[in-house]
Each structure stands twice: as C-alpha cells, then as structure tokens.
User: Which sequence fits this backbone?
C-alpha cells in the first residue's frame, strides 16, 4: 500500500507537536497551554449537553449559537465567523480554499512550523521572508505573488507582535490573502479584528490558550460574510462536536474569567523574563503566554535535556541560520519557581 501514496507525502517529515506526557509528576511548559482552569460556565454547559439527548444528534454544522455569542463579544458580524476543530483546522481549510497545487505559501521566519507542512500537503511551494533582528517585517515586502501568506501575530517562537499599521501596509502590497494567525492575541496589546471586519485580512483564533480549552479543540476565523459563505463549502460537514461548541460559547461569554487568568499570566510572564535574563539568557520581550530564551555562550539543547531529566518539559526549537532556543510556556507561579530553581542549578 505504501507505494500508492503520493511521493510528496512519503518525502515529507510532517509536523511534530510538543511532547504530551501521559503520566508522572511533570511540570509541563512546552505547548503553551493555559495553567489555569476554564470558566466554571464551561463545566455547566458541558453537563447540560451530557444530561440531555444532544449526544445522539449531529451538531449544528454552522455553530449558530457560538457565532452569535462571538459576534456580540467581539463586535463582528456572526455571518463573518467560521468555527473549526482548533485553529489548525481553519489554517487547513484556508490552504485548501486558496492554494492550488503548485502554488506558493509564504510566511516570515522563524515562525509556526505547521505552515510548511500545510504547503507540502497541498503540493505547494513554501517560501519564507526573514524577520529583521528586532523581529519586524520588511516595509517593502519582497514576495507579493504568494497564493497565501501566513503571519503569526503574536509570533511563535519569539512571542513578538507586528503593529497593526504594518500589517495593513503588508496586506495592501499582497496580491493574495493575508492570514493573521492570532492564537495568542488575547495576551497582546492589540489585534487585527478591525482589519478582518474591513475585509483587509482573515484572522484565525483558538480557544486553547487564553480560554483554557486546549483539550476541547476549538477555533474560529473572522472574515467578510461573503468569504465565510465560500469557506463553509471547504470545511468538513460537522467539524465541531456538540461538547466543543457548548464549551466554546460558554467560555467566550465569561470575559471576566478570561481577563483574570490573563492578568495572572502577564504578571508571571514579566517575572519569568526578568529571572531568565538574570540567569544569563537572552530573552525576547513577549506578547504571548510564553517566552523565547536563548544563550550566546552555548547551545541550549543540553539545558533542555537536563530539564527533562528533572521532569520539566520546555520546547527546544532550532531554526536554520537563527540557532536554537527554549520556548517556555508561562505556568503557575509555583511551576515557574521550580523551573527557575532547576535552571539556576543547571547553568
């Protein structure tokens, strides 16, 4: 059977998610999950679904209730919202919709590694534009003909953000769509929803990070209603189940809970940045729920491996021409305390 696979599938390496330990006493700071529980309203919404007869019925294929809630909370047209099984599902839908076989996907680099995988799956070329040393993008974009351009904002692994005026300027230069991947936008100072409402960009979001729903797998995209009507044709018929739809709507409605968790994470993030700097790391100021830490005196892979031996998981990432670094999720204060104790002993 392997011989019948497309040659491009056999040749590609595929995207490697962060390690997910199944048991043991592990401090898990490698996949940018929220360290705090979701809103209590989420549990109430799930219980309501489980006690009724909704599990035997198909979910609403358009997620009408969620779209209405999101439209009200985010001040967007509900018909301009498309939900997905996590934001990765939405990135896949957008790739299938816009990128022909032999087309090109473009992204700044270093950035989210999945973008290359999506291009390979589509039989498209993947190309990159380097970030500058201060993590800005070129004022004159050198490649405007891409079928699709992805911009993670805030970016991973750096945690940095591009200002909205620069994003608007980039969108004006491109001949194809610009996707602003806002997985971490709730931890940043600004976002691109206004540009999405105006039809300048497409924004994708996830509830995995700021709403503590990584286990539910739910995301959404914001664009013009006319475009969303076309993208609905591309998505799987029922790409979100009744539990995730109920949980997502309940989480989004409880903005007070989300903002409380956000404030705690931002305070811990600031402390983590200070302490890592004191320990000799070069830390890029972050607009996300993680920090990117590097060292000029040595590779950091040995530090990553020693932390793992001590039951602390962070994400080791290496990029050609950019070297390696540790992407450290912002955990609880107790988790970060233990991380810093172990790092001080290691370095």
Assistant:
């Amino acid at each position: 059977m392997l011989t019948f696979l497309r040659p491009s599938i056999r040749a590609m390496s595929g995207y490697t998610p962060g390690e997910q330990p199944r048991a043991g006493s592990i401090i898990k700071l490698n996949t940018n999950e929220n360290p705090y529980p979701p809103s209590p309203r989420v549990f109430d919404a799930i219980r309501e679904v489980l006690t009724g007869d909704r599990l035997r019925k198909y979910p609403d294929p358009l997620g009408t209730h969620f779209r209405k809630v999101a439209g009200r909370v985010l001040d967007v047209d509900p018909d301009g919202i498309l939900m997905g099984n996590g934001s990765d599902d939405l990135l896949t839908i957008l790739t299938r919709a816009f990128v022909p076989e032999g087309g090109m996907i473009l992204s700044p680099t270093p950035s989210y590694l999945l973008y290359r995988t999506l291009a390979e799956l589509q039989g498209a070329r993947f190309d990159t534009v380097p970030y500058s040393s201060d993590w800005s993008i070129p004022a004159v974009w050198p490649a405007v003909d891409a079928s699709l351009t992805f911009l993670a904002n805030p970016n991973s692994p750096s945690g940095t953000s591009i200002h909205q005026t620069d994003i608007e300027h980039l969108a004006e230069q491109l001949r194809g769509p610009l996707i602003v991947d806002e997985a971490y936008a709730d931890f940043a100072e600004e976002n691109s929803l206004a540009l999405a409402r105006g039809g300048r960009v497409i924004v994708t979001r996830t509830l995995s990070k700021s709403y503590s729903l990584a286990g539910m797998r739910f995301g959404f995209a914001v664009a013009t209603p006319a475009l969303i009507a076309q993208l609905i044709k591309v998505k799987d018929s029922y790409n979100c189940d009744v539990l995730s739809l109920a949980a997502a709507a309940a989480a989004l409605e409880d903005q007070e809970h989300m903002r409380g968790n956000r404030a705690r994470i931002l305070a811990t993030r600031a402390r983590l940045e200070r302490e890592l700097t004191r320990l000799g790391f070069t830390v890029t100021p972050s607009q996300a729920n993680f920090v990117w830490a590097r060292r000029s005196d040595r590779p950091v892979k040995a530090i990553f491996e020693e932390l793992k031996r001590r039951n602390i998981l962070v994400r080791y990432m290496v990029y050609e021409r950019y070297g390696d670094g540790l992407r450290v999720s912002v955990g609880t204060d107790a988790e970060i305390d233990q991380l810093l104790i172990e790092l001080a002993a290691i370095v």
The chain has a mean pLDDT of 95. The chain is about 35% helix and 15% strand. The first strand starts at residue 27 and ends at 28.
